[in-house]
């Protein structure tokens, strides 16, 4: 299997929306044959140092940050609608990032 | 309805004697299967709920046992009557989901949502199944106070209807706050936004009398960055251990005094962290059911586009929510100490996530207003939290949490404080009758009128949004 690609997801308490995104992305990427891990955090705990340990940041909607992130931001909010057709573009975007990282 | 429940009780008595975790394992699994969830997925959810209920009971036990004695000494030493422990939202959510009646209220609210959609009274399909616990909590509290189930169900429907209508009213504001395109379906029926009408009153006051205050708004991202880990959950748990030990009069001339303080602090920090870990199991447990209900509803309404009701944190990217919560934490601590009638010692709920999202929506990110209005409304949360303490403790015991005798638990910043007072008045109107009937009717009327006024204000706001878009 290819190397593990790590994403971060964040929401209010770091337990509900971010976990939904984590579970959905990990499962879909496994189905597509990638090795992806997502960690869930509280948005208030996200900082530059934390993001430096990840390959991408799965946001829910517009997210205020006090710095310019060096990793790609992917809007993953559509996963929360629980309608597969709406979540698909998110997975495609994640896959693109994963492919780029695997190609490195 | 009570007849049916009595019959069900006699049938299920042996099951009920197995305890809350076992009951919920079976009930949640069965209901998920009813919504066509695959059996293994449904069982996975049921098991996760059972272990979450068990684990939260044990952690509550660990926390309350450690803090019980120092807090009694704190009260004796300072004369401040703060003897009720603040668990934050996760334990309250878990124990509320530990009652089968929560699933009853869930089904009632799903039917309500479907009816409102069919009648075109709303455009919101609520898929935030987990957060049904806020309203279920009010229904259960109403029953605890003395109302029969049908009356509590009416109250839940009354508030539930406004909650769904509110999600439509707020939708254009969400698009504005998120810079989202018109087609974005994100909205929410979350209970914390039922404070909007009251916040709107204060916001009007600012518009009319204190508009110059907005000049002092500051950059929230910068503040949050400076606070860093000092505002994190575990750090707050540690401060509270230190604070309680100091005011409990630990003898710091002895090694034991220091040791007790450190032990208490680390238990505080670790329990707060554990609560959120267990909270995530518990939310995962409702996940298969949520997906099942969403699949079911989207199939029934195929071809229609909805706004989709989510948990509130799609707004959590707005840093004002966290800046206001950071500033309000020490303010709440001070208020808790001087507020007459408050018995809650802030801990688990001190990061006021149940308070600040509504402030953001009504003020649209004016941070100074958020902080001032937050300061003014926090006492309502503290009083409501104190009032429901005996009920929460009772419920915790019934799911098997071994909280020591004479110790009460609650939450300082639980969403929907006003609705708890409504539940209290409605429950007493049934049980004690007399003047309580009058009070309950007055309170319900004022609540409704205030919401209607708020709806009018929001419609004005939404018309402005529509006009601005046209102009572009």
Automatic annotation (TrEMBL), chain A:
**What are the recorded GO MF terms, alphabetically?**
protein-N(PI)-phosphohistidine-sugar phosphotransferase activity
What's any GO biological process attached to this entry?
A: phosphoenolpyruvate-dependent sugar phosphotransferase system
Q: What keywords were assigned to this record?
A: Transferase
Segments traversing the membrane: none
- Pfam families in the cross-refs: PTS_IIB
Q: Which residues form a coiled coil?
A: none
Q: What is this protein called?
A: PTS Gat IIB
Organism of derivation: Lactobacillus kimbladii
């Amino acid at each position: 299997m290819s190397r593990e690609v790590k994403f971060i997801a964040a929401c209010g308490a770091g337990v509900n929306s971010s976990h939904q995104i984590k579970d959905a992305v990990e499962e879909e990427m496994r189905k597509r044959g990638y090795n992806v891990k997502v960690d869930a955090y509280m948005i208030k705990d996200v900082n530059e140092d934390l993001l430096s340990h990840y390959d991408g940041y799965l946001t829910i909607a517009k997210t205020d940050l006090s710095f310019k992130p060096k990793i790609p931001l992917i809007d993953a909010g559509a996963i929360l609608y629980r309608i597969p057709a709406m979540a698909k573009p998110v997975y495609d975007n994640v896959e693109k990032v994963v492919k780029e990282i695997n190609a490195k | 309805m009570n007849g049916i429940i009595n019959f069900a009780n006699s049938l299920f008595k042996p099951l009920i004697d197995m305890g809350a975790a076992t009951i919920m394992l079976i009930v949640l699994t069965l209901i998920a299967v009813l919504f066509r969830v695959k059996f293994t997925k449904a069982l996975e959810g049921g098991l996760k709920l059972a272990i979450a209920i068990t684990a939260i009971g044990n952690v509550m036990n660990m926390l309350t046992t450690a803090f019980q004695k120092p807090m009694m000494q704190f009260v004796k030493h300072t004369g401040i009557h703060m003897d009720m422990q603040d668990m934050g939202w996760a334990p309250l959510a878990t124990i509320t989901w530990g009652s089968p009646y929560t699933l009853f209220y869930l089904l009632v609210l799903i039917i309500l949502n479907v009816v409102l959609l069919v009648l075109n009274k709303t455009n919101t399909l609520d898929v935030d199944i987990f957060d049904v616990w806020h309203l279920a909590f009010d229904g259960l509290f109403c029953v605890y106070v003395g109302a029969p189930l049908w009356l509590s169900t009416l109250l839940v429907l009354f508030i539930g209807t406004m909650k769904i209508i509110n999600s439509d009213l707020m939708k254009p504001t969400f698009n504005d706050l998120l810079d989202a395109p018109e087609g974005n379906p994100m909205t929410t029926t979350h209970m914390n936004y039922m404070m909007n009408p009251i916040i709107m009153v204060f916001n009007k006051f600012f518009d009319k009398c204190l508009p110059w205050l907005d000049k002092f708004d500051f950059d929230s991202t910068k503040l949050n960055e400076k606070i860093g880990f000092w505002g994190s959950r575990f750090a707050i748990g540690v401060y509270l251990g230190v604070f309680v030990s100091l005011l409990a009069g630990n003898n710091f001339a002895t090694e034991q005094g220091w040791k007790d303080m450190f032990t208490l602090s680390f238990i505080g920090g670790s329990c707060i962290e554990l609560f959120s870990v267990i909270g995530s199991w518990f939310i995962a447990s409702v996940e298969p059911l949520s997906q099942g209900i969403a699949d079911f509803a989207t199939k029934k309404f195929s071809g229609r586009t909805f706004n989709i009701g989510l948990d509130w944190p799609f707004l959590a990217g707005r840093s004002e929510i966290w800046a206001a919560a950071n500033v309000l934490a020490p303010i709440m601590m001070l208020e808790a100490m001087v507020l007459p009638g408050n018995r809650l010692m802030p801990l688990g709920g001190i990061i006021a996530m149940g308070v600040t999202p509504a402030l953001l929506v009504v003020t649209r990110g004016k941070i100074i207003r958020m902080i001032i209005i937050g300061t003014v409304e926090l006492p309502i949360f503290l009083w409501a939290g104190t009032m429901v303490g005996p009920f929460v403790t009772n419920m915790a015991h019934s799911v098997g949490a071994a909280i020591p005798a004479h110790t009460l638990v609650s939450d300082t910043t639980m969403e929907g404080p006003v609705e708890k007072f409504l539940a209290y008045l409605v429950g007493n109107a049934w049980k004690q009758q007399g003047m309580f009937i009058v009070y309950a009717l007055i309170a319900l009327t004022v609540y409704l009128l205030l919401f209607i006024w708020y709806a009018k204000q929001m419609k004005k706001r939404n018309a402005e949004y529509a006009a601005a878009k046209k102009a572009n």
